[in-house]
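User: Just a sanity check before I run the rest of the batch. Below are the structure tokens for the first item. I only need the designed sequence back.
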């Protein structure tokens, strides 16, 4: 039995922490680059397809704006909740697979809607599922990256993938599908890449448990600062009393708001 905080958990004997660096780092980067890029592919698809379904569903411009804003709100709330839940349970891979499956299903079902109410509901559920992805893949990517590649890998996963797959390939592919087969098919087709990505995560991504004894032992052997019962993570209130944390939070809030609006 291993004591973590005030709770005791049975530590599975067969758990091995994911490796750092080497081939696994590159495989993880490729899988997460594709996964988060597809998140933005799905999220932005509605923007590109709205001219095709606006008249058919009888939508106003305000309703189209709401269809973009509501998923973003659900995304924001989901990110906070999933970050807390994954830290609390010390589990990431199962949540990630579930999130990918859910946002793929909700995106595909958008092609079956008959009105604005059902579309709003599905896009909100999709946003909540997508918002869970980044808080799960960030710690897994950072943990398995060599120190000199952490910034590069994080930038590729979070920034470059969204721009390339969501911003460049997204409008080309979705508009082509809508022109050739109709806007409903363009939504339904997202089942294919979503399923492939879920299988890639299942096959190639190793679970990360930051507070597991095996992980703590590996951290110590590698000379890393371990996160565990003897070296607890910083509390939320303590983080907000840290000058750099507050400054970075403010910068991120204003920068992302400006960037998304632009």
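Assistant: Here's the designed sequence for the first item:
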């Amino acid at each position: 039995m291993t004591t973590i905080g005030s709770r005791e958990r049975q530590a599975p004997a067969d758990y091995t922490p994911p490796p750092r660096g080497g081939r696994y780092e590159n495989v993880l980067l490729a899988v997460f680059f594709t996964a988060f890029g597809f998140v933005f592919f799905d999220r932005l698809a509605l923007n590109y397809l709205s001219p095709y379904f606006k008249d058919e569903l009888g939508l106003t411009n305000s309703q189209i704006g709401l269809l973009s804003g509501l998923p973003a709100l659900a995304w924001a709330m989901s990110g906070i909740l999933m970050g807390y839940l994954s830290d609390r349970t010390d589990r990431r891979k199962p949540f990630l697979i579930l999130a990918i499956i859910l946002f793929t299903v909700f995106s595909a079902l958008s092609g079956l809607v008959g009105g604005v109410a059902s579309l709003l509901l599905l896009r909100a559920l999709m946003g909540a599922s997508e918002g869970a992805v980044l808080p799960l893949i960030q710690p897994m990517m950072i943990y398995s990256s060599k120190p000199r590649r952490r910034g590069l890998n994080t930038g590729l996963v979070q920034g470059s993938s969204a721009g390339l797959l969501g911003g460049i390939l997204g409008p080309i592919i979705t508009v082509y599908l809508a022109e050739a087969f109709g806007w409903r098919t363009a939504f339904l087709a997202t089942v294919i890449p979503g399923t492939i990505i879920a299988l890639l995560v299942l096959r190639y991504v190793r679970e990360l448990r930051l507070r597991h004894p095996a992980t703590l032992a590996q951290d110590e052997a590698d000379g890393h600062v371990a996160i565990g019962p003897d070296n607890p993570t910083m509390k939320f209130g303590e983080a907000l009393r840290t000058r750099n944390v507050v400054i970075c939070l403010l910068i991120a809030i204003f920068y992302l708001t400006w960037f998304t609006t632009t």
